[in-house]
């Protein structure tokens, strides 16, 4: 029986008796635990929500070459899906056991992988948090298969990128929200725009105050429907493949980074705004307009094989070194974060500068580590597993980024002002009409009074004339 060792405090090796397995606490039931809240509930200020990096492992089925070459050998791994454990065989009688947030066998569907690994991240992006989904593993183990499959011929094979956008577009309102995308590759420490390949030296800008990372030089395409997004991915992927073909390699030598920016309008509470608009008008009390900006970063890392194994020389060696440099810088950062070290060497490579928010930052992060079954690649598989194990120890502090939307407030105040002007004009017209009506009525009354007076005068005049005539007549009679 093999001796017992402990890795990262959660792994036992030997004959893998369950009784000796130290289980890691599961703070939540699924990978990328749900923090999805209603929009109103998520208006909670800027308090961070703690969230550990979630890690799943996915085993690729044997390929044609392995089916022949490894015919007489057992796979180097065995998965215990119920227990979310993976056993890595050292030899016929000895194995190491590792526990993950989820383990996917070779028959796991793309839909299930998406729902467990990426959907919770997409949901928190829709709630205003940043999110990262990343695939790490040796060349040919299924990173691109998991993330980048378009599913043209078989829709069930759609990968995480396509499914994420489907869920995002189904949730946002294109009238008030916006979704835009950039697609990049990081190759030999230079960032190239996969949507505009001539643009091949994009710089990373870090906000010293917030630590936010942005790539202002990258093409940003507004997405309004799923089809245009799929076309964009196809276009970007073609450039990535072309670059690899030029280098005479079928495997991806670059890290591909898809960034989906989501900008949503949210309405805050009315009283919060009162002080800001008091001067505007006591009549206008619009609710507080806010924009919530978040981004989903999907990272398809280059193959993680070691230099000696890739047998590289010349340019290929330099390239392998560069891939190694960025992946080992990422590994070092993860180690430092896992050990709560005071110094995290984020600046050691462009990859770690780009992903500074994804590990130990304010984003919700899911990592999928892909492995192959071949015992010939046991060493690579072991190092991939250890990478995943360490990443599981990294704690992020998720934060919502809300900004006061001055543009939207000004738009809304303009609309309200227009309404007030129209109302004022309506009231002025009603007033003028009323004055006109009263004036007419008064004139009619005066005319009527004048008429009545003239009638009465005429009557009085006639009466006087009659009386006069009567008096004259009486006088004449007396005189005669
Ligand atoms: N889960 C899976 N089920 C069936 N086929 C798979 C699976 N994962 C990978 N494959 C197949 O294995 C091959 C290699 O996969 P893929 O290109 O995704 O690997 P990769 O890790 O992205 O490699 P690289 O690092 O070289 O880009 C492809 O032909 C892919 O279709």
UniProtKB/TrEMBL annotation:
Which species is the source of this protein? Answer: Citrus sinensis (Sweet orange)
Under which name does UniProt file this protein? Kinesin-like protein
Q: GO terms for CC? A: cytoplasm; kinesin complex; microtubule
| Residue ranges of every copy of the Kinesin motor domain listed in the record | 52-394
Where is this gene product found?
Cytoplasm, Cytoskeleton
> Under the GO molecular function aspect, what terms does this record hold?
ATP binding; ATP hydrolysis activity; microtubule binding; plus-end-directed microtubule motor activity
Residues that coordinate or bind ATP: 137-144
Relate the assembly described in the record. Interacts (via C-terminus) with NEK5.
Among Pfam families, the record links this protein to: Kinesin
Q: Which UniProt keywords apply?
A: ATP-binding, Coiled coil, Cytoplasm, Cytoskeleton, Microtubule, Motor protein, Nucleotide-binding, Repeat
What residue spans carry the region label Disordered?
A: 1-47
For bias type Polar residues, the affected ranges are: 13-22
Which InterPro entries does the UniProt entry name for this protein? KIF11-like, Kinesin_motor_CS, Kinesin_motor_dom, Kinesin_motor_dom_sf, P-loop_NTPase
